Amino acid sequence: MGSIKVVGLVQHPRRHCAEVVGTIAEWAAERGIEVVGLAGEAAPGCPAVAAEELAGRADLVVSLGGDGTMLRALRIAHEHRTPVLGVNLGRLGFLPEVDTPELAAALCAIDEDRFTIETRSGLQITTSDHAAVAFNDVALLRSPGRGMAAVEVHIEGHPFVSYSADAIVVATPTGSTAYSFSAGGPIVSPRVEGLLITPVAPHSAFNRALFLSERERLALRILPSSGELGVEVDGRLVARPQPGTLIDITVEPAAARVVRLGRTTFYQRAQRKLRLTGSPTT
Fold this sequence. Notes:
The protein is α/β, with parallel strands linked by helices. The protein folds into two domains: 6-115 and 261-273, Probable inorganic polyphosphate/atp-NAD kinase, domain 1 (Rossmann fold, 3-Layer(aba) Sandwich); 122-253, Tumour Suppressor Smad4. It contains six helices and 18 strands. It has helices spanning 18-31, 51-57, 67-77, 103-111, 179-182, 266-273, and strands at 6-11, 34-38, 48-49, 60-65, 84-88, 98-99, 116-126, 131-134, 137-142, 149-155, 158-165, 167-171, 194-200, 210-213, 218-222, 229-233, 236-239, 246-260. The strands form three sheets. It has a six-stranded parallel sheet, with helices on both faces.
């Protein structure tokens, strides 16, 4: 008997997952392993449980989808630090580890402890009335037609610089290849602990990104001159802060545990996803 007793499934809401769920169920049945899914998306024959129960019971969480599904699985697994295996369905992502033809072999390897864990940091965001965790990014976005996002960056308790922009993105190294990257930010190795601050379409004199250590305290203050803003955490709208609001953001090291089987590196996945073909030759 291997080390896995319960597998929890997190599925993409709009992808056809029945075949891959069947593969997992067949593999699990042969080994006496229980498979549970989330309420509202569990497959036939797969008990449905609440997210809190799934994370608490599962020895392994399997994400079926792409990067978005993987981020949801990481949030669900966060409290218990349950390892998450990403199975890519459809478009290639940065976070999933295997494609569907490799799934059965990957599950066997995990059950036999032939894998490694890659830790990923998270961002804890706190305001006077909101708290959330992000694994990709926290974005302060202006509402269309309501003026620019005017935000003052505080580092270690002191104002450092102000941005006026369409948005200000605070990303983990994991999230450096997401919204921040599309705004011109750098790719950051997932082995680094820290946070990346990137303005989107900045209108201020200072228009460069910042990278802070995981030990440095960051706060964002909404300036009185700011237009109406929304706060998105991994793409989910969580708040509409008023001018004067102070948003504290801290790094939580090793907030998530991603299963790696040593088949590809982060740079190989980035190369495929971004269609990089190497340096130009002369």
